[in-house]
Amino acid sequence: MFIVLVWLCVSSLYAGAAAAQQPGPGVQKTQEIKLGYLRAYAPQLALSVLDVAPRDEGVAGAELAIADNNTTGRFMGQAFSLDVAEVKPDADVVQAFDMLLNKQVTFVLADLSAGQILSIADLARERGVWIFNIGSTDDSLREEDCRANVFHTAPTRTMLADGLAQYLIWKQWRRWALIHGSHETDRLFAVALRRAATRFGGEIVAEKEFTDTGTARRTDSGVVQIQRQMPVFTQDLPDHEVLLVADESEVFGTYVPFRTWRPTPVAGTAGLVASAWHPASEQWGGTQIQNRFAKVTGRRMLSKDMSSWTAVRIVGEAATRTKSAEPARIADFIHAPDFSIAAFKGQKLTFRPWNWQLRQPIFLGDSRSVVSTSPQEGFLHQFSELDTLGVDRPETKCVLK
């Protein structure tokens, strides 16, 4: 009799546990929101070993945001996940994109070149998939090649150049000389700097191109060669207050500060650098996210980490607000005029409805600290001071399709 009673009690416990695991009346199944991260990656050298990009740059920011989304999602019956796919730089990305879609991914973070993004943008639209550009700064993606299903959390070159130019004008440093590299990306940033000079009242008094001859970047005699050659290279520049450097290709820029012929501040891709985020940022709750990020990754947060974190949080915020996992409903909410996202930058960030570029402050800093953030005081706009950075609505060439 005792054994029978024990068996009945144990059976009841198991039955109760099983019942607790079964969805009760009115309890909905967990909504799954699957995101993909598609990146073009290959190990890259830098002029300084301190500037070599970490292996998980960008991906780490997205993973932290997935964890943040799931913290809220557990209470909302939502679960967020991230699948990562890699291709080589300049490779065809369609196959890798299709692999992500086969996993039911509906939002893709694209850490790709402008051409690679364009190769999948129309295909994504046909499949009901939304893309977040978290890496490319090409203005063309937001202008003549803009797409209605592509959001941009990375700033443009014109936004970066305008942020830098505003600070130089605020400092009353108006005469600039410009050195740019010989690669296409260097020339594009030089174009953005020229535009910023015209827009805000700076004067570029001279330009020079530093040609990439393909020689070794690191040699035993490199320091001696640089110390002798860079002053000579800048010797014939006329009087200027700031030397601008456009070297996205990492050929010479790091060698410019403290080696110029004249004692001149350096800005651009070296010296005072404009970026979407700064690893030393502590204002506006920056310390909190920096500490959480460092605890998980063992390093500080970089611009691409913040761009990817912001993209994932945008999806999470929209999913939470709509209580939906449907990509169309989430995208409609993001497209709404009153949508905004907090991203530790001192104000809520919103999208420009004419090209879906995220409005955001630009950080200006050196390798150690944040010097300032733009827009600068006194640069006014009838709608948003953030629209003083980059291409404004009256200037845009974007026709969304």
Can you offer a commentary on this structure?
The protein is of the alpha/beta class. It has 2 domains: 31-155 and 278-360, 3-Layer(aba) Sandwich (Rossmann fold), CATH 3.40.50.2300; 158-212 and 222-274, Rossmann fold (3-Layer(aba) Sandwich). Helix content is 36%, strand content 17%. It contains 10 helices and 12 strands. The chain has helices at residues 2-21, 59-76, 94-102, 114-126, 157-170, 184-200, 222-234, 286-297, 303-322, 327-335; strands at 31-40, 78-87, 107-111, 130-133, 150-152, 175-181, 203-210, 242-246, 266-268, 272-275, 362-365, 370-374. The strands form 2 sheets. A 7-stranded mixed sheet has the order 7-6-8-9-10-11-12, covered by helices on one side. It has a 5-stranded parallel sheet with strand order 2-1-3-4-5, sandwiched between helices. Strand 11 and strand 12 (370-374) form a beta hairpin. Helix 2 runs parallel beside helix 9 (303-322), helix 5 crosses helix 6 and helix 9 (303-322) packs across helix 10. The chain is globular. The model is unreliable at 1-25 (pLDDT under 50).
